[in-house]
Amino acid sequence: MRAMVYRGPYKVRVESKPDPVIEHPGDAIVRVVRAAICGSDLHLYHGMMPDTRVGMTFGHEFIGVVEEVGPDVQNVKVGDRVMVPFNIYCGSCWFCARGLYSNCHNVNPNATAVGGIYGYSHTCGGYDGGQAERVRVPFADVGPSVIPDDLHDEDALLMTDALSTGYFGAQLADIVEGDTVVVLGAGPVGLFAARSAWLMGAARVIVVDHLDYRLEKARTFAHAETINFGQVDDVVVEMKKQTDYLGADRVIDAVGAEADGNFTQHVTAAKLKLQGGSPVALNWAIDGVRKGGTISVMGAYGPLFSAVKFGDAMNKGLTLRMNQAPVKRQWPRLLEHIRNGYFSPRDIITHRVPLEHVAEAYHLFSAKLDDCVKPVIVPDA
Amino acid sequence: MPYTANTPSAAFDADELRRRIPGWGADRDPADRPAVPRERYAPEVTGAHWELPPQQPELRPRERSIEHARLTPAFGTSAPLKGASGAIRRLAYARYSEGRAAHWLLLMGADRVDVVENHVASWFSKNPDNPVMGTGLSTEKTYGASSRRRPGRVDVKHQWLDPVVVAGPWLLGGWAALRGVRRVVRGARR
Questions:
Q1: Same domain, yes or no, for A129 and A150?
Q2: Do B136 and A56 touch (CB under 8 A)?
Q3: What is the per-residue pLDDT across B117-151, written as a single tens digit (0 to 9) for each?
Q4: DSSP labels, A291-318
Q5: Fewer CB atoms near the end CB (10 Å): N or C, chain B?
Q6: Is A102 in the B-facing interface, judged by CB distances under 8 Å?
Q7: Which pairing describes strands A28-36 and A248-253: parallel, antiparallel, or unpaired?
Q8: What is the distance between the alpha carbons of residues A375 and A4, in angstroms, rounded to a whole number?
């Protein structure tokens, strides 16, 4: 089959590699119909995630058609059109039994601090991902769901991570009616978090980024106020000014390991890999939120240490909440919202790219060219 | 202002928000949000029909964190350990827990070694690497300049470092190889 393959930092290409096979009786093989590139794939692409091996296929957002199932699989069958959560999870361990699907203990031998994720380095289990013609889907009775007839394929695709993570970000922020919510980052997760904050009763939603075209999307798609931190002297002071010097009630970090806005932090983390991630957004969240407020972290960081301003967080009495989204737990409610017209996830897709052009798609997304917000790979184009 | 007990800008018009924003307030009640109550014990909803999943066969030795008591029932088989990078990774997993910086720094180091090993191996394959292919640089011709001229972009301050990160190791490697060849040639002449 043809598949995207990592060749080293900033380099990917499409290669022929063997088709995936059933390796566990609970596996399925899925023919990929659509796969997205996620902002967190860029951390792998830039060589930031430990144990990212040359030859791995990335891609944890995908939908497809079941082509083969293992002998134990009961809940999906060959021919089913399925959406697959980015989490690989067993459904039966201590954590899965309590709904913490992203923290599954039975799928990742390489690390106990993180569950299994498709195509996300060996630190997340060493599974190939969905930016390919076919992919192995472990525990097919647990993760995938048949795509409802009334759900658009590309809406289903975005439910496998970006939408579910954005909504989860707002959920972890514990928003109550009347809150002012600041969302750091106007990428797909930030845009969905901002939309979700309204559903939870926010009175104001302010999105912060440095890319004007994304802030425009935050205004039109997410109905938010915006701050371009590249055009203000000090974004923390700006956040305070805009909240009557109290600070925002809730701040959502939808940026993660490659946060910009502080040259030293960004270069030491993203370029020199001396930190697990650049904590610029996290530090702005700590300083911009009001005392006693809540920070929800959806941005992905590596497992190494980062220079986080933890003293301020302690002194301000903050609540910090975070996790990888347990995607499938979010689906029933999100489906209702899509059916009610509260969300049209596919509106954020800006680029649809054949698999053979995956290197160009990665560069476009990474360098933020051509107003790219969300690129989608079409394997059979 | 926060200098009195009053909440600043507390007044907001819920009806206006509801008119302007589709679905505003639909999930105001936390009970309507997914997974309420939190961490409820509910193994019956996951679709799992086993108490402990069967073990995926370990067809070759599979490295694992020493914080795990056993090999997990399922695991990925992409890019198995090999070469010098494999030896470094094996050491990182066998010796150091996830709590030790040495674990992660060894893995990061192995990643760099892995790239070099695979680049060299590719020169002896039908599909050799070259420094430019795979970087997607062709998109720069069409979109590079116009996209970067947008006001407020702060990433342009460090994007010049990207080619250094990508090409730097090649240049260093080439320089080291050249010096090595020179040394061998000089040694042979003596």
A1: yes
A2: no
A3: 999 999 899 888 877 777 888 888 888 888 888 77
A4: EEEEEEE-S---SS-----HHHHHHTT-
A5: C
A6: no
A7: unpaired
A8: 14
